[in-house]
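Re: beginner question about structure tokens

> Can someone show what the tokenized structure looks like for a real chain? I only ever see the sequence side.

Sure, here's an example I had lying around. Input first:
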Amino acid sequence: MTKKKKIRVVTGGVFDILHVGHIHFLKQAKELGDELVVIVAHDKTVEERKGRRPINSMYERAEVLKALKMVDEVVIGEPNCISFEIVKQLNPDIIALGPDQNFDVSALKEELKKKNINAEVIRIPYAYKSDVAKTSKIIQKIVETFCE
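And the corresponding structure tokens:
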């Protein structure tokens, strides 16, 4: 009897101040396959892309994600880039993009093809809409509540 190949889903993000929007996204990503691997953005990447340091370090964010039952593995990304080398090593069947991740899906698919990464790219729609399901909104609310 042959063993059925497990479907590996890979996603990535900052995941700073984990909130309900992250949880809904990760649950949906996990439902796409058997294993969910999360690439946590390197602190330097967060600074470059968001214009601020993350509240929690990449190690703290990774530890929190590892504690979630839907997450099977966590990898910390390379500084200042999206590492296709890490993605290639993880050998995903599916790459799950969050609804607010500003990737050009066509360009991403083309880049994956160039790197010989044969993964389907799926953008997960918002499952939970709320003003507090966004890290920047949570930070803003904290500042307004405790710093004014």
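Each token stands for a local structural state, so reading them left to right follows the chain. The longest helix spans residues 20-31.
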